[in-house]
Amino acid sequence: MAKEELLEMEGLVDEILPDSRYRITLDNGHKLIAYTAGRVKKNHIRILAGDKVSLEVSPYDLSKGRITFRHIDKKQSFAGAPYRRH
Fold it and tell me: Along the 86 residues of the chain, how does pLDDT read in single tens digits?
C-alpha cells in the first residue's frame, strides 16, 4: 500500500499546549492541534505563540498536523542579544 500524500499548509501558532503540542490557526481559518516534527525537535528550534509555521496534515484527519518549519520574522533583530554558550 502506497503512502498517502500529505497536505502542506501554513498557519499561525495561537497557544502552546503541554507535551510539545500547539494550537494552530491556518491561513484559511481552520483550527487544529499540531506537534513538532523530529527534525525540529532534534535541532532545538523554539516555537512561540505568534510564530508563522509550515505544517503537514493527513488527508484522513484534518484536526491534527505536524510542524515542519518555523518561518523567521524579519522584524525581530537579535544583533544586540548577548551570545550564550552552553
Answer: 457 789 999 999 999 999 989 999 999 999 999 999 988 888 988 999 999 999 999 999 999 999 999 998 776 555 556 666 66
Helices (H), 32-71: 38-42
Residue in the block written with cell 498517502 = 4
What DSSP state is assigned to residue 40? Answer: H
Domains belonging to the chain, first-starting first, are 7-70 (2.40.50.140)
Beta carbons of 42 and 82 less than 8 angstroms apart: no
Other Cβ atoms less than 10 A from the Cβ of 59: the count is: 9
